[in-house]
Design a protein that fits this description.
Largest sheet: 3 strands, mixed
Shape: elongated
Distance between the termini: 86 Å
CATH architecture of one domain: Orthogonal Bundle
Family: Belongs to the annexin family.
CATH superfamily of one domain: Annexin
CATH class of one domain: Mainly Alpha
Pfam families: Annexin
Protein name: Annexin
InterPro entries: Annexin, Annexin_repeat, Annexin_repeat_CS, Annexin_sf, ANX14
Order of helices and strands: HHEHEHHEHHHHHHHHHHHHHHHHHHHH
Helix content: 40-55%
Keywords: Annexin, Calcium, Calcium/phospholipid-binding, Repeat
Strand content: under 5%
Length: about 575
């Protein structure tokens, strides 16, 4: 051995890999054998007389040790002569005397995943030359009237003002509303030109009810995140994690109805009196109930419910239940509760008693902002007197349970987090290696990526996967997964690529086939209607995909007061 061994660094290496194994970051039937081979390979790489392709460093571990807080952390520094995984695998085979094996692949992959960049001038992280891809709009793109230019890798950094990427391309705002005139989106909708930002393509404010922004600055665009150049190397993690977007960005504000109560310039007393009059005495004026409740936004509903209690000393929801019945009653109660309280009641009912309504869990919990999930968990604990996570664990099992625990952790990338090319490429490769690129499927890696990325990042991942592997990620998930996990992953993917089309498809699923799934149909329409702009886009997406109006389809599946209620929720006059 020509080099003396720094035992602190060497044993930091061992402790680091042991940490990966103990946290189940490394999946294998024989983890001990992997551990032994990996240890041997690193030892030989570090002490081999030939110039190493990988240098072991542990500066962060030494710094933490000096502070009496030992957290072993290892990073590998790649040399410019080691640009690819294949080159590193050949070197591992040479120093270990073994033929190519899964352990060599594992070792080289771990090193490359956690290596620091080589010196300037070459190496694994060098920016590739610009490439022109074939014209291929990403899955779930905007309607056909939207023009797609040939995709080309951006040339400027994220620190430069964007030249306006084509719709649907990663880094661009979400697709413009369905039915909007091409190249002239209405103000305040997706697709409108965003204000220039020094470091990323920003999203506009989340749509507010009835097209008017609430007071107190609710939903203002977040400030720019820390600057990072396009293609820049992401920070080196201290241990493998499926979440490379660790930098903190401005949080996504809660949706209307999920944040603190807001005082809006609206008097609920007249409508509270109309509701009482419609239910007082003999008979019930069902049409009046529909007219009053179907057009209120979340803030108005909360104020109306309080005003009804204050003026008439009665509970609005209890009165509705006593005066109506069947699915008409269910729909009115969903409206009267407001979005947050209704989510809590539906979650509890979906898990209470025998069996679990998995569709309800998917509808309410998946692709929600961190702020909304935290509000749902807090309200569930207040109303049901038990943690939501505990109840979900009792209803799900194995990897599906772990999938939903990731979701309920509320650590998804905020909407303000930018799309970074290096991170997207890594996610694309990880998804391929977890599905098509191996025998079997690494379910948890796929679940982690799709649960922890924001919509812009999901859209970029879907687009790049198609460009690189000539297959839709949607198709891959349908082939590799089954059951509840498949349904959940498809919702997470499709929400990222086109959330309006996803809602349109879910509404059709509730009406297709023999019989109507009334609970799903009603809850999905009510959830979509809380934001009028969202409801309009869902209607247009539905018409584009199914060549018929959503209201007409709903009308054919329902009848009576229940039909009139759902038609009003869809925006049709009573």
């Amino acid at each position: 051995m020509s080099n003396p061994i720094d035992y602190f660094e060497f044993f930091s290496t061992l402790n680091y890999f042991f940490l990966l194994c103990s946290q189940r970051r490394v999946s294998s039937k024989n983890t001990l054998l992997e551990f032994a081979f990996f240890t041997f390979s690193i030892y030989r790489l570090y002490t081999n007389p030939a110039p190493p392709f990988v240098t072991i460093t542990s500066s962060r571990a030494k710094a933490s040790l000096n502070q009496q807080e030992y957290r072993p952390s290892l990073c590998w520094e790649l040399h410019p002569q080691c640009p690819t995984q294949a080159t590193l695998q050949r070197r591992l085979m040479a120093v270990s005397g073994k033929e190519n094996s899964t352990y060599i692949v594992l070792s080289s992959r771990l090193i490359l995943d956690h290596a620091e960049p080589p010196p300037q001038g070459g190496g694994y992280y060098q920016q590739p030359p610009p490439q022109q891809h074939h014209q291929q709009p990403p899955y779930g793109g905007p309607p056909p009237h939207a023009h797609y230019n040939t995709y080309q890798q951006p040339q400027q950094g994220y620190g430069q003002p964007p030249p306006g990427p084509p719709p649907g391309q990663y880094g661009a705002p979400p697709p413009q509303p369905y039915g909007a005139p091409a190249h002239s989106p209405p103000p305040g909708t997706y697709g409108a030109a965003p204000p220039p930002s020094p470091s990323y393509y920003p999203l506009g404010p989340p749509p507010a009810g009835y097209g008017a922004p609430p007071p107190h600055g609710y939903g203002q665009p977040p400030g720019p995140p820390p600057q990072q150049s396009y293609g820049a190397v992401p920070p080196t993690p201290t241990a493998y994690t499926p979440q490379p977007y660790a930098v903190q960005y401005p949080p996504t504000p809660p949706s209307p109805g999920y944040g603190p109560a807001m005082n809006i310039p609206w008097n609920p007393d007249p409508d509270a009196d109309r509701l009482r009059k419609a239910m007082k005495g003999w008979g019930t004026d069902e049409k009046e109930l529909i007219r009053v409740l179907a057009d209120k936004d979340p803030f108005q509903i909360n104020m109306l419910r309080d005003a009804f209690q204050r003026r008439h000393r009665r509970d609005l929801i209890a009165d509705i239940k006593s005066e109506t019945s069947s699915w008409f009653e269910e729909g009115l109660v969903m409206l009267a509760r407001g979005p947050l309280l209704n989510d809590v009641h539906m979650l509890f009912n979906a898990m209470d008693g025998a069996g679990t309504n998995e569709d309800i869990l998917n509808d309410i919990l998946l692709r929600r902002s961190n702020a909304d999930l935290k509000a749902i968990k807090a309200e569930f604990s207040r109303v049901c007197h038990r943690p939501l996570e505990e109840m979900v664990r009792g209803e799900l099992s194995m990897k599906t349970e772990r999938h939903f625990m990731i979701v309920l952790g509320a650590t998804r990338a905020e909407d303000s987090a930018p799309v970074v090319k290096a991170d997207i490429d890594r996610d694309v490769d990880d998804l391929y290696n977890a599905t098509e690129g191996k025998i079997g499927t690494d379910e948890m890696r796929v679940c982690s990526i799709l649960s922890l990325r924001n919509d812009n990042q999901i859209r970029a991942i879907s687009y790049e996967y198609r460009q690189k592997y000539a297959r839709d990620l949607d198709t891959v998930i349908q082939k590799e997964f089954s059951g509840h996990m498949k349904d959940a992953l498809l919702i997470q993917l499709r929400h990222g690529t086109d959330k309006y089309m996803l809602q349109a498809r879910l509404l059709e699923d509730a009406m297709a086939g023999m019989g109507t799934k009334d609970r799903l149909l009603t809850s999905r329409l009510v959830r979509a209607h809380w934001d009028r702009n969202n409801m309009r886009n869902v209607r247009n997406a539905y018409e584009q995909r199914y060549k018929k109006k959503l209201a007409k389809r709903v009308q054919g599946e329902t009848s009576g007061d229940y039909q009139r209620l759902l038609m009003a929720i869809c925006g049709e006059p009573i």
